[in-house]
Amino acid sequence: MILDTPSVRAAAGVPRTTTGLDANKKVSGRKRGLAVDVLGLIIGVVVPAASAHDDAAGTALPDQAAERCGMRLEKALVDQGFKDEVLIHGALSDIDVAVVRRNPADRGEGFVLQPKRWIVEQVNGTLTLHRRLAREYDHRSDTSASRVHWASIANMTRRLTTPSPAWRDTLGPAA
């Protein structure tokens, strides 16, 4: 399982009681805590205020994912934003939580793909393509979490029903 918590700006009509300010990213809105498997399928979503620390989502997501999957999770990959609370919670739940750290040599090169972590970043990118998820419009955070699930179902349906691209055809053009 791979965890991430991107911050999303809130629209003007969203109540301030359910939003906050993410001081690191200077974003006023909510965070979307996502737990995805190695295939990029969403197995857990929590939507706290952006002012909440990543650890709040990091302790809730493994429990939610284990409950939904009906199996025991063995390993979770997180970024450097998650702190000791997630590692301790993972140890108590028999989950090996590994922090994927950036390579110091890649400091000035902009965005660099991290091993296995790119999967959750790709899921975040495809979710943002859905109009209702580009910004937080919902008044309730549970409604926002359900929209994430709807968007992931739409992505999955599109992948299953779209024919393979022409460059994957091994037979070539019909004669």
UniProtKB/TrEMBL annotation:
GO terms classed as biological process: DNA transposition
Domain spans labelled Transposase IS4-like: 19-129
Matching InterPro entries: Transposase_11
Entry's Gene Ontology molecular function annotations: DNA binding; transposase activity
The protein's name: Transposase
